[in-house]
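Morning, I've got a small favour to ask if you have a moment. It would help a lot if you went through both lines with me. I owe you a coffee for this, so here goes:
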Amino acid sequence: MKNPYEILGVERNASKDEIRVAYKNLVKRYHPDKFQSNPDMLKLAEEKMKEINEAYNYLMNHTEDEISYSDDDASIYAQTRQKIQDGELYEAEDLLVKISDKTNPEWYFLNGIIYAQRGWYEKARDYIKRAYEMRPNNQEYEQAYRTVERTSRSYGPVYTGGGQMNEGSACLSCCATLACADLCCNCMGGGC
């Protein structure tokens, strides 16, 4: 995904209200219902709406008083979330390596989600906890932290190193992966 600010045509310091207004204006302009009689335009409008919705959902979940990452990093974070949602964990991890500021809570959060989806719950908990401690008012970070905390506490470490998983890990891995994927998908504005 391109830079979400550019997609919606808002400044980096835009408030949630400004983001909502820009989103509503774009929906009115590109809504597929307006193009039902023209199949070519309908397809383009559907693609544009998908892009607009992804940008809107990303910004609404990440607009706070002090978003502190560059435009390039914002684009990489959005791409990383999409890769995680698509199950492309190695590609998501490769994108996070490109981030210039690795002290940002979003960097910790997304790494934590990747670890959780791999079944490495203790490491996931550490990363997500760090993000949550840095931004305690972020509901997405809080929900993910509570989920991974319950998982790691209830079942103990699932990943034991060396590629070995302990007893019951297949079920836990599946359930925890689905829970973390749901967290990521919900922040993207839709169910999986």
About this structure: The chain has a mean pLDDT of 78.
